[in-house]
Every structure is written in structure tokens, then in C-alpha cells.
Amino acid sequence: MEKHVSIDVYKLKLLLGGIIVGILSGAVVSMFRWSIQSSLTVFQHFYVEAKSNWGIVVGLLAFLIVVGIIVGFMLKKEPNISGSGIPQVEAQLDGDLKIKWWSVLWRKFVGGILSIGPGLFLGREGPAIQLGSTIGQGFGELSHVDSPTTKRILIASGAAGGLAAAFNAPLAGCMFVIEEIYHNFSPMVWLTALASAVSSNLVALYVFGLTPVLDIPYKFSLPVGMYWHLIALGIILGLLGRLYQIVILYMPSLYAKTKIPRSFQGLIPLILLVPVGMMFPKFIGGGNGLIVSLNHMNVGFWILAGIFILRFIFSMISYGSGLPGGIFLPILNLGAIIGAVYAVFMNQMGLLPISYESNLIIFAMAGYFACISKAPFTAIILVTEMVGSLGHLMPLVVISLIAYIVVDILNGAPIYEALKEKLTLNSTYLNQVSKYNDRIEIPVYEGSSIDGEYIRDISFPKEVLVIAIYRGEREIIPRGDTVVKAGDRIVMMVNAAQRAKFKKRLTTLINGID
Description:
The protein is mainly alpha-helical. 64% of the residues lie in helices and 5% in strands. It folds into 3 domains: 2-208, Clc chloride channel; 224-421, Clc chloride channel (Orthogonal Bundle); 433-511, Alpha-Beta Plaits (2-Layer Sandwich), CATH 3.30.70.
């Protein structure tokens, strides 16, 4: 009985910690989000005015060069603020990377506003996730948490809170952390992440109101007889999604050919932003406003195709430079444009009423994000929450599944995991001797080679100690004759400095995957 009470107290502490981290994340991310929105409005006005005033053009150019230099020095001092921040959070939770939370927090906040606010094709959501994760890390350190597991759970809960506040999507924030970042469905993880996400979202709702982030009205539900469009559009999304993955992973190599130091390569997109902003002031930024307006723009196929090409190319230029900013919203934006292009084309062919354009815009957002990130559950829940309607669940599932399968056939890896592999990791941290033992928890999937095996017959590395097996909510103390079953979660202790290496080995051993 005493042991049961202790576990409940630990869960309660995690829950309360998640709520506190969520409130703090919601406040910080809401300020971040509001600052970017306000900055973008101001810059759009200046880009319009610059068309008839060369003085404003010179002023914008000078200002953006200064911004590039300031952010460049920030990146030089703290490289971990580069990009969306999601690969860094994944590496941190895997044990591959150690960061200084305050250094990243304030620089990501300021650098993100300076980079995204002027109108680069970058998203606020990745940075929001990293901001939340640093708040979770900071809370753990300031409250003197010693357990590495608890520290990771707080970091993950902060990441969930960050995404929830950025999109007003608490369920998606929780699911993204579990599906894409933490890769662990432990009750301790999802409960703390959910508490953080809900708390953070309440703060964001107080600041921004109850209107869904993507309030896209639609007149009719797509009839089942037209579901073949979901298959065709899903294939297109998968092909373009794989192209997106290939190009974005190649961009750092392309930038390296400029011979500009990596920290200052952001000057290129910032300078290019002036003519892009002057020509297309309504299309700049992460793309939230463009998504909402797509279904009543009343433009033809070629104009929509041109908008897609513009958004695709300049998104690559913006993110490839390494400036603080994400690809989350730009991916959704590109997906929405693909949906609109498809709808207009099929309407011109006489195969689809134009009244279903809004539907395909919504579906394509989920499909494109699902195949690029390879996180279909997050994509489905995210778009559902952002649109504010449950009426699309079945078509969202169909199109996300088709697009996912296409990218899988083309050997596409989850984009954030692929970006993580390109990080320059802190080898000093990896080689240090830790005074703490650390734990790894790995689920046993259906079809695992150890399903039905005795613990004594499984070839665990000698540096690994199996300490518990969770079967549902029940904890089993393992012995040699304990039988492992599919659905179990095996908890093992390892040296903290070797955690990442052993996690990969153990995942391969237990489930046969890397």
C-alpha cells in the first residue's frame, strides 16, 4: 500500500509540474506569437508603401541587414537556436545533446521575432516548441529535480505546451510530443504533456480568443462517391512531400557553397525578402492568412500554381539559411495550396464542383504534414483542432494514410528526425561520465521477436539492467522466468552518458527497428 501511495504522489507532482510549465509556456509563446503577428502587419504596410518610395526600400534593406547581423551573432554564440528547434529538442530527449536553457530561451525568443516578424516564410510553431521545452528544462533545474527521467518529462511537457499555445491545439500538442518527439506512450509522459498543453492553451485562448486559428468555412461534406479524389490528391501530396524532404535536407549544402559563415547565411533570405515583400505583400510570412483566404481568392489554376512555386522556393531559402524559424506552418500552407490547385484543376476538367474546394484545402493540409513529418495522428488531430470541426475525420484519415504510404514507399524519413541527424552534437557531453543512472522505457510492439520470450532468454547488453515491466497500469518486477508480451513497456537502467547509444540498440533488439 505504501508503494502505491508513493507512485500516486509522484504522478501528482508531475501533473502539477506540467500545469505550471504549461502556464509559463502559454504566457511566453503567446507573447512570441503576438509579437510576430504585430510585426508582420507593420512590415506588410511598409512593403506596400515601398512600391512608390525608394527611401522606404533603402530603409527596409538596411534594417533587415542589421537584423541579419544581430541574429547572426546570436547564432554564433548559441547555435542551438537555429531552425525550428524541434530536432534539438529530440536530440536533447534522446540524450544526444545538452543545452543551457536560459541561453536558448531568450535568444530563440528575440531571434525568432526578428527573423519571422519581417515576413520570411518561416513558422512560429517549431520555435514555440523549443521555447516550451526550455521552460520545462528551466523549471526542472530551478526546482532542483535530480531524476533524469523527470527532467525529460518536464521538457516534453513544455514542448507540448508550446505547440498548444502556437496553434490553439492542446490535443495535437500532446500527440506531437508523444508521436514525433518523445516516442513514448507512458502514462506519466502523456498525462504531464496533456496537463501542460491544456494549461498553455487556456492562456493562449485568453489572449487570442476562441476563434479557431484556421477558420475555414465549408458548405458540404465530401460525398463518399468522390473519395477517389482523396486517393489521387494523397498520391500527389506524397510525391511533393518527398520532394520537400529532399530539397530541405539539401539546402545547408547549397548554402555552404556561398562561402558565407553559417551564422550569417540568414542575410541572403532577409535581403531577398525586400523585393518578394514588395511584389507579394499578402503572401509573406508563415502563411496563416493565405490559408484562410484561399477558398475565396477566385483565381485560376496557373496563379495558384505560381503561388505554390513561390512559397515552396522561398520557404526553402528561408529555412535553409538556419535562421530561427520553423517549417510547421509553411508545410500546412503548401498543403493547403496544393489542395486548392487540385480543386480548381478538377473543376476545370468538370470532375469536381468548386464548392468542395474548402474541403480539399483542409484535407491536403493534413496529408502534406502527415507524409513529410510521418506523424499522421498529429496531422489529423492538429487540422481538426485548427479548423474547429469534427466533420472531416474520415477524409483526413484517408488522405493522410495515402500520402504517408507514398512517402514510405519512396524511403522518406520523418523530416525532424532527418534534420536531427544533421545536427552537430555536443561530443563533450556524450563522452562525459555521469554520476546518475538513467532509465529507458521501450514498448514491445505486436510482432516483436521477443514477444512470448522469457527475460532470461533475451540478449540484453550487460551494461543494461531490466528493472520493471509495465503491463497496462500494473507493474511487474522482472525475473528470469517472466514472459514478455506484446504491449508491455520494458524499463531499463543505463549509464546516462550512454543513454542515446543504448536506446538505439535496445529498440532494434526489442522491435527490430532503428
